Amino acid sequence: MPTVLDVAKCAGVSPITVSRVINRSGSFSEETRKRVEAAVAELGYVQNSVARSLRSSRTNTIALIVSDITNPFFTSLARGVEDTASDAGYTVFFCNTDELTEEEERYTQVLLQKQVDGFLLVPAHSSLNSIEKIQKHNIPLVIIDRWLPGVAVDSVRCDSVEGSYQLTRLLLSLGHRNIALISGPKDVSTSIDRVSGYRNALEEAGLPFDPANVQYGEFVQSSGYALTKRVLAMDPRPTAIFGANNFIAIGVLKALNDAGIKVPGEISVVGFDDLPELLVVSPFLTVASQPAYEMGCRATRLLIERLGKKGAGEKQQVILPTQVIVRGSTGAANG
Amino acid sequence: MPTVLDVAKCAGVSPITVSRVINRSGSFSEETRKRVEAAVAELGYVQNSVARSLRSSRTNTIALIVSDITNPFFTSLARGVEDTASDAGYTVFFCNTDELTEEEERYTQVLLQKQVDGFLLVPAHSSLNSIEKIQKHNIPLVIIDRWLPGVAVDSVRCDSVEGSYQLTRLLLSLGHRNIALISGPKDVSTSIDRVSGYRNALEEAGLPFDPANVQYGEFVQSSGYALTKRVLAMDPRPTAIFGANNFIAIGVLKALNDAGIKVPGEISVVGFDDLPELLVVSPFLTVASQPAYEMGCRATRLLIERLGKKGAGEKQQVILPTQVIVRGSTGAANG
DNA sequence: CTGTTAGCGCGTTCAT
DNA sequence: ATGAACGCGCTAACAG
Questions:
Q1: DSSP string, A24-55
Q2: What's the pTM value of the predicted model, to 2 decimals?
Q3: Residue A29, CB, less than 7 Å from strand D?
């Protein structure tokens, strides 16, 4: 493969001039530009970004670390990230941690080695190792979807407390007094916030917060399914179930389906996270919807802003609203 | 950030010795290893892959170029790619072309510059520019999901002809004689193959192939929706509709829903590509399902095999079977 | 507007 | 088992 040197010889100029023309940096005559571009075309020259990066200390590359790209929420988010990054001249590495701290740390290490210009991270649980390592290396970082206690970082997420509060209020307004919440892991902020919102709504309504009504599990369908079975065994049986993310909510609906329980006739169901309308024929679930694509765009824009002025400026917290969408899975409590 | 030199000084050895310990290459004493590792830990040294790549001409990086990661088929595929790549020590760049040839070429150029070790590509339409460019640079390439006329490349895809043939036979066996096929773009191989399979089944059954029954559009929901409207206006009206991918099939179902037409009572519907069971409460659509995750794994394994022996060996074509899953959207033709 | 020099951080080559 | 010298391809810094 030809190098700048070959192009330079072919065009009868010095390597640095070739560099200037290719990168549109510095200045050069129209005549030189033409000769260089002709040489580039003739030789089929392709610039070597690796060498360029070694010299310039920039790779035009960012990392996106999520728990599972297969979750439609993260898929949309990833698409937002890629669109925004691509427009700004960045290429995106993507990584799935499956909520495993070790995987997160392994990826962080590799990507630090690869000299990514910035990190977009959905933290697995509440380990700070990765974050501290990234910060120690002075690489811009934006945390997405979750917060972590005691760290000052740029972040973009949705208002889970408020979304959860509104969903719970909706159920209360329908007459439900016994509402089960099937949550994710205890140490993930989205779980914590959604429990808080739920609790706030109950207390505002003068109802007791019963810890037994909150089941902690994983943000996966099988967890939603299994915990619903447990909820159904409770006495008195809740008249509404709140699934704390999309997978859990689907697990809830499956379990109710399998148990022959009518929704919303016998039990109402609400969920957090909507499914993209491109995937659903007739949306049924009442949800608090998060603007996943938009979150990806915002986080990427924030990150790219940071790339210029490393470390400078106050950390920013972008908190986007959720939108409650009422559909067929919720109805009046009977009894 | 510290470099090998700093580590070397700190450990009282030469840079190359540090390199040997870190990469477990060459030989060194146990004593040296300990001193180097202590220095690495003390300084928080992280190897610079960019410099390493410049020297070694390998980046341990591959590119995945798909039309749209938001399509669950590509999402699962991407997950298969990432899992396999990660296990083998590779990191993945992901890119969305939206079926645009210019985007494909732009990404190809950028990734060539970034010296990716290999390409996984779902080609947009039938332009060969990107492929020829990649081949000219001698970078291993595996084409996924589609074939292109007149190029010898490694590829992994499903047997769309057979899947389509079986879906059509299923409809025929249910008594349908007037089956509309809503397809993707005319120049994409998956469209071509699915029309072929459909045609084969009809002709085998002694039925005429009526080109008017095949509507070409895009592989998107709005296209499936709009073309269904057109199909519904036909006289005689088809008793079954075949959506050539997941998005189209959903568009078909939405259009029938909006038109108040019962499925399968009045019209049966089949689709290509299944939706992940994690996303669906009660699967309804009869489909030919493609093992998307597996395709991603296979393609990545094939690519990684190639990375060792560049250009050597015969090009390989992996063709995986589809699986027809009969569900509630198909019923007997009445009439 | 253009060129010279030097060096980014690492690993290959050859020596000891 | 260890080290010295050199160069991967490019561009920053400094001329002119």
A1: T-S---HHHHHHHHHHHHHHT----HHHHHHH
A2: 0.96
A3: no
